[in-house]
From TrEMBL:
Residue ranges that the Swiss-Prot or TrEMBL entry lists as coiled coil: none
PANTHER family linked: QUINONE OXIDOREDUCTASE-LIKE PROTEIN 2, SHORT-CHAIN DEHYDROGENASE/REDUCTASE
Entry-linked InterPro entries: ADH-like_C (IPR013149), ADH-like_N (IPR013154), ER (IPR020843), GroES-like_sf (IPR011032), NAD(P)-bd_dom_sf (IPR036291), Zn-ADH-like_protein (IPR051397)
Domain annotation Enoyl reductase (ER): ranges: 14-326
SUPFAM superfamilies hit by this protein: GroES-like, NAD(P)-binding Rossmann-fold domains
Full protein name: NADPH:quinone oxidoreductase
Pfam families: ADH_N, ADH_zinc_N
Gene3D superfamilies: Medium-chain alcohol dehydrogenases, catalytic domain (3.90.180.10), NAD(P)-binding Rossmann-like Domain (3.40.50.720)
């Protein structure tokens, strides 16, 4: 008898509730160089939601199975696969395909995770922690003792950024939309916390970092707030543009960078994953930071596959804290 599984399809451009449909299909076979993974947990990224709405960096081709980051157990090996064992817990950064009972994954898309992690922890790890690492170190060149501004601080990337900044002995100003989210940031080690809509936020961020501003900003809100971030930056400050969660048009006058010798750098994890220099820096430093013992994946609310549209809407509407998880077999 053919084994079947449930999977989710983005069938058209639109808000999650309009775009996503639940379907049943045969369990796929792994091709050469692929493994079959029983998906236990999907880590939902803001990018998944943007993809469904066709607002991501790359255009969406419907229909597709969303879910760029997921974790589970290897149940079959395709031809020519070596170095992966049946039953092994793997995390996958596959671009899409995770929101299903099973997924076929090219071995290059497997990310090593500690075998002591649960699948939920493994699904909450790769994208957020690698992005935070490249923002803080590879592109941000953050140093011990320096201040960094972390926005959306209780979100998946925000939590990872605070933890890694702590492991680097950096000092953190954290911003978020609610007092509850700021309390999370403080628990994770943020030194100063500020509401994202505090009317005196520019002045307060500058004062927190000694009056001149912060040397490093991990920008995830974007839109009209980016111009404001330039005013929060110290002379020669580095602003790493990681996201545009506001979904507003970004308007920045490059002349404003000149005035205080600021640097604005874009970051996209997808291209850094195959960038030799970024990979060398990851190999040299990332594991050592994790070993400092302050790093723990931060799963947030968990949903069943059937409730994915709700999960995506909650993430989009800022109702979540931590990494949103979908458990396809729940
Ligand atoms: P989060 O878990 O951080 O959730 C998104 C958060 O964005 C919300 O909780 C909210 O936090 C915040 N936010 C701020 N302003 C707005 C706004 N106007 N509208 C909606 N949300 C807002 O998601 P992720 O960790 O997945 O992603 C965080 C950001 O980082 C996103 O912009 C994402 O695109 C980006 N990213 C980019 C990567 C890259 O390779 N370039 C990789 C990973 C993430 P609050 O309520 O506190 O304001």
């Amino acid at each position: 008898m053919t084994r079947t599984m449930k999977h989710l399809l983005a069938v058209r451009q639109g808000l999650p509730a309009e775009a996503l449909e639940l379907h049943e299909s045969p369990v796929p076979q792994p091709g050469p160089g692929e493994v079959l993974v029983r998906v236990e947990a999907v880590g939902v990224n803001y990018a998944d939601v943007l993809s469904v709405m066709n607002e991501y960096l790359t255009p969406a081709h419907y229909p597709f199975v969303p879910g760029m980051e997921f974790a589970g157990y290897v149940t079959e090996l395709g031809a020519g696969v070596s170095g992966v064992k049946l039953g092994q817990l793997v995390a996958c950064l596959a671009g899409q395909g995770g929101l299903a009972g099973y997924a076929t994954v090219p071995v290059q898309a497997l990310v090593p995770v500690p075998q002591t992690y649960t699948p939920v922890q493994a699904a909450a790890f790769g994208v957020s922690y690698l992005t935070a690492f490249h923002g803080l170190r590879t592109l941000g060149r953050g140093q011990a003792g320096e201040w960094v501004l972390v926005q959306a601080a209780a979100g998946a990337l925000g939590r990872a950024s605070i933890q890694l900044a702590g492991a680097l002995d950096m000092r953190v100003v954290a911003m978020a939309s609610t007092e509850e989210k700021l309390a999370v940031a403080r628990e994770l080690g943020a030194d100063v916390t500020l509401l994202q809509d505090d009317p005196e936020r520019v002045q307060k961020v500058r004062e927190a970092a000694g009056g001149l501003g912060v040397p490093l900003i991990l920008e995830v809100v974007g839109g009209q707030r980016l111009a404001e971030s330039l005013r929060m930056a110290a002379p020669r400050g580095r602003i790493i543009l990681i996201g545009n969660a506001s979904r507003e048009e970004v308007r920045v006058n490059p002349v404003d960078l000149m005035k205080r010798n600021l640097t604005l750098t874009g970051l996209w994890l997808t291209t850094l994953l195959t960038d030799p220099q970024a990979q060398a820096q990851t190999a040299a430093e990332f594991g050592r930071l994790l070993d400092k013992g302050r790093i723990a994946p931060q799963p947030g609310p968990s949903y069943a596959l059937l409730d994915t549209a709700q999960a995506f809407s909650d993430l989009l509407d800022r109702r979540t804290s931590g990494k949103v998880i979908i458990e396809p077999w729940r």
